Amino acid sequence: GVTGSGKTEVYLKLAQTTVESGKSVLVLVPEIALTPQVATRFRRAFGGRVALWHSRMTKAEKGWTWQQLKKGKYSVVVGARSAIFAPLYNLGLIIVDEEQESSYKQDNPAPRYHARDVAMVRGKQAGATVLLTSATPCLESYYNALQNKFTLLKLTKRYGKSNYPAVELVDMKKEYSADGSSLLSKSLVQGIDDRLKNSEQVIILQNRRGYSRVHQCLDCGEIKKCKHCSVALTFHRTDNNLHCHYCESIEAPASKCNECNAENLIFAGSGTQRVEDVLQQQFPKSKILRMDMDTVRGKDSHMKILKKFANGKADILLGTQMIAKGLDFENVTLVGVINADSGLFFPDFRAGERVFQLIYQVAGRAGRGDRAGEVFAQTYSPESAAIQFARHSDLDGFAEEELRQRKEFGYPPFRHLVRHLFRSRNDSKAAFFAEQWSKRLKAKLSPSEIDVRGPSPAPMEKIKDHYRFHLWYFMQSVSKSLPAILDLR
Question: Cα–Cα distance between 241 and 370 in angstroms, integer?
Fold first, then answer.
C-alpha cells in the first residue's frame, strides 16, 4: 500500500480478529525507532496485553518478558528482528512491517538469519498467517506475488483526504557554488522558510552521520583512513575527532599529511552534524532535533526525540534513514533529501532498489494531514531511473525495469545468490584460501549446477584488522547445490 494508505489500521483489525479467536500476534518493525509508535497504536487496542522486544532492553527486562510470554501473559509482541524468536503461545498472525528493510538481516554476530525469511518458516510451522507489508516491497517478494506464490493485496490511495506530495528534483550540478559550500539548494531553503512561517514542520534526510565524511589533503589527494579498516575516517564535531564507523576507533585530526607532509588539509563531504549547523545558520529561530546513531545511544532516546517532535517542541527533524519510513506526523508538510544519490553507486546489484525505496519512503512522510505536502530531492543524477521512478511513486514501473535487467544478468530473484566470505589477519592467506576453495568447487560441480565468480577483495577489504576476500555462487537451487558446497569442508 502507498505511504499513508492506512496499513497500520489493517494490522489492527487483523490482530483484533486473531486475538479474539484465542491466538497471539507478532509484529516486526525494522527500526527500534518505530517500535514506540507502533506499540502505542496496539496498546490503545489491546491495553496491557502488548509486550515490547528489542536490543535496547536490558537483560533483566528481556528475561522477565520472555518468562511472561512463555506463561501466555501477552497476546501481542511488537519488536525488532530478534522478536521473531519470541515464545508466543498459539501464534496466529505474523506481521512484517516494511518487509524490504535490510535491517531485518542479522550478519554479525551469529546466528545469521533474515527475520522475514524466518517469519515465513515459523508461520508455516505454526499454521499462522504471515503478512508482509510495505509501500516499496523488495523485488524478491514482489516477484513472488507476481508468480502467485504470495497473495497480493493493494491499497492504492492514501487514507482520508491526504494526497501524495509533489516531488521536485533539484539538480545540484547547477546549484554547486565555486567554493563548494552549497549544501542546501535555494528551492529547499525557500521551501523550509515558507513552511516554518506557517508553523508547519519539516523532515530533512541526510543518510550519513558525523560532520564531514573525509579528511583529505588537497596537495596529494590522500584521504585519512582507519588503521584497522579500509574505510575513510569521519570527522565528528561533538568531540572534534575522526571516527571509524566500523571498529569504533578514534583519532585526533593531524595537522600535516602523512604522505606528502603538506598542511593543506580539509574536511570534505557532509554528515548530519554539518547539515544541522547549516540549518541552524539559515534558520536561527528554529528548533532542530537530530536523530542518528550518535543521538539514540541512550535508553529510550529515540522515543524521547520522536515524542518531542510529535508534541510540536521542534520545527525540523533531521536524521539518517531511521526517520525515512513508518513515522506519521500530520504537521509535517515538507521533506528535504540532502543527497538523493547516496548509495546509488555502491557495488551492489540492489543499490538502485534501495535508493528508490529510500526516496519513495521518506517522501511519504509529507502531507499526511489535511495540508498539501512537498518534497525537494537534491541530486547530481536526476536522470537516474531509480530516482525518476521514485519521484513519480511508480513502483510497478520501477519493478518492471529492474526485473528486466536482473533477468538479463541472472540476478535474484531469477537465480539464488550466495556470498562466501574469507577473513584473515593476513591478506595473502585470505586470498590463497579463497582461490583454493574456488578451484576445488569448480572441479567438483559443473557450471550448470553452480556459477562461481571470484575470488576478489570485498568492497571494504579490511575491517577490524581482518582482510576479506569473497566468492559469489549463482545457482538455480540452493537446496540442491549448497550441500555439495558444504561437503568441501
Answer: 45
What per-residue confidence (pLDDT) applies to 489? Answer: 65
Rounded CA gap, 278 and 273, in Å?
9
Phi, psi of 263 (to 5 degrees): -105, 10
Question: What are 280's three cell numbers?
Answer: 541552524
Under a CB-based contact definition with an 8 Å cutoff, are residues 467 and 423 in contact?
yes
Q: Which of 134, 145, 174 is nearest to 10 (CA)?
A: 134
What sign results for the dihedral spanned by CA atoms 353, 209, 278, 172?
Answer: negative
| Burial tier of 125 (Cβ tally within 10 Å: 0-12, 13-18, 19+) | exposed
Other C-beta atoms lying within 10 Å of the C-beta of residue 186: 10
For 367, the 3-state DSSP assignment is: coil
Measured distance CA(186)–CA(42) in Å, rounded: 42
Query: CA nearest 26: which of 95, 127, 106?
Result: 95
In sequence order, what are the residues at sequence separation of 6 or more whose Cβ sits closer than 8 angstroms to the Cβ of residue 171? 379, 380, 382
What is this structure's pTM? 0.87
Other CB atoms closer than 10 Å to residue 367's CB: what's the count?
A: 25
- With bands split at pLDDT 50, 70 and 90, how would you rate the model's confidence at 87? very high
Q: Cβ-count burial of 44 within 10 angstroms (0-12 exposed, 13-18 middle, 19+ buried)?
A: exposed
Q: At 174, is the secondary structure helix, strand, or coil?
A: helix
Cα–Cα distance for residue pair 52/327, rounded to 1 Å: 18
Our measurement of the distance from residue 40's CA atom to the centroid of its chain's CA atoms, rounded to an integer in Å, reads 23
- Strands 105-106 and 113-114, sheet pairing: antiparallel
Do residues 129 and 95 make contact, with C-beta atoms less than 8 angstroms apart? no
CB 153 within 8 A of CB 137: no
HSE of 5, CA atoms in CB hemisphere, 13 A: 16
Report whether 153 contacts 115 (CB < 8 A). no
Q: Alpha carbon 342 to chain centroid distance?
A: 12
Residues with Cβ within 8 Å of 179's Cβ and at least 6 positions away in sequence, in order, are none
C-alpha cell recorded at residue 277: 549547523
Write out pLDDT tens, residues 396-431: 999 999 999 999 999 999 999 999 999 999 999 999
